[in-house]
Write a structure and sequence with these properties.
Order of helices and strands: HH
Distance between the termini: 37 Å
Pfam family, one: DUF2732
InterPro entries: DUF2732
Oligomer: single chain
Strand content: under 5%
Helix content: over 70%
Number of domains: 1
Protein name: DUF2732 family protein
Amino acid sequence: MRKQPLNTPNHSPEALALQLAQARNNERLRCAGVISARLDALAAFISSHRLEWHDAAELLRQEASHIDNQAQELH
């Protein structure tokens, strides 16, 4: 199978930029879905255990710290 040279229309700078933007948007959507699901699970936990406001706030702080640590591992 022969590869197309990078200067063909399928590999134009505009097409590559569009593909990169689509990949970034897809990753953002995936991350948003993960965060949304986690927040929903935390809300369910808070409700089912009838946590006091200070306990719920501490749970949210711990989750924020966990997210920050994960983000730093990626860099």
